[in-house]
Amino acid sequence: MFKQYDNRRLQLFAVVQQKNKEFLAKIALSRLKYRMYGDPMTNAQTNMIKQQLRTGDVLDEKILNLYDLLPRHEFVPHAFQHFAYSDMQIPLAHNQRMLTPLEEGKILQALALQGSETVLEIGTGTGFFTALLSRLCKKVISVDYYPEFTTHAQQKLKTHHCNNVELATGDACRGWLEKAPYDVVVFTGSIESLTDTQRLQVLPGGKLFAIIGKEPVMQGQLHTLQQDGKWHGTVLFDTSIPPLIDKSKPKEFVF
Predict the structure, then answer these.
(1) Angle of CA points 79, 216, 244, to nearest 5°
(2) Which of 5, 42, 141, 180 has the lowest tally of Cβ within 10 angstroms?
(3) 210 Cβ contact list (under 8 Å, min separation 6)
(4) Residues 6 or more apart from 100 whose CB is under 8 A from it?
(5) What would the mean pLDDT of 139-167 be, rounded to a whole number?
(6) Which CA distances in Å does 209 have to 70, 101, 229, 252, 254?
(7) Alpha carbon distances (Å) from 81 to 45, 77, 100, 128
(8) What is the tens place of the pLDDT at every residue in 5-27?
(9) Cα separation of 71 and 91, whole Å?
(10) Distance separating alpha carbons of residues 252 and 214, to the nearest angstrom
(11) Which fold has domain 45-239?
(12) Do 232 and 213 touch, CB atoms closer than 8 A?
């Protein structure tokens, strides 16, 4: 009986040893791949900067450095982390989407933030664009309609030491009068048109970015309020993105 027991122990020991060898072999292979090819996410991040941002005329080194420092994949939903550096609008809950890296970069470059501005962001989403803004201005006030987006963003922003961000939850499609006016206002979802209420929340000399239009034709537009009170608008890019939630808008009836 003891002999059979010893044999079973030897067999079990042999199996464990084989499993350990396989495990160690996998670790060694992973380390070899890392030495040969580098970290896949880091490579994707570098390629995004070279092939999307620089090719798309986002050439401000300050902005490019931000994309190099902030890990975009840590903000996106887990199921889409492998697409974090792809040229696509990553799907979010509630039929929302992230802007593409190039769209984000073009907005930041056009805003030309100097570091002294208070920025209102309408549509926090994952918090990644919020983090980018926070590195370029004095303060960001970011509002999202969905509480889970605010909670997720708060966790990520804290992890990455974005301490100059104030988050709020609510319907801010018409703006956020509570802290108005602002140096810069950014709408990250689409709106059909700009209203006087939205414009009035921008200080003279300030800027407002919004994606304006209806499917299938939308444009990312930058509007600057000049010191004489006149607005000057510029089209940055064509795109298509879901609209911001606007509970004050009357529902449309479909016959």
Answers:
(1) 60
(2) 5
(3) 186, 187, 190, 191, 194, 198, 220, 221, 223
(4) 52, 87, 88, 89
(5) 98
(6) 22, 16, 17, 26, 31
(7) 12, 6, 14, 13
(8) 456 655 655 655 665 566 456 54
(9) 18
(10) 14
(11) Rossmann fold (3.40.50)
(12) no
Q: Which two tokens stand for residue 159?
A: 């992890």
DSSP state of 223: E
**Rounded Cα–Cα distance for residues 72 and 101 (Å):** 9
Find the length of the chain: 255
Say what the pLDDT of residue 40 is: 73
Take residue 121 and report the two structure tokens written for it. 């962001």
Q: Is the dihedral of CA 152, 155, 160, 166 positive or negative?
A: positive
The residue to which tokens 């414009």 are assigned: 199
Q: What is the pTM of this model?
A: 0.82
DSSP per-residue codes, 181-213? -EEEEEEEEEESS--HHHHTTEEEEEEEEEEEE
Find, among 186, 218, 221, 219, the residue nearest to 202 by Cα.
186
- Using CA atoms in the order 115, 230, 199, 204, what is the torsion angle rounded to 10 degrees? 40
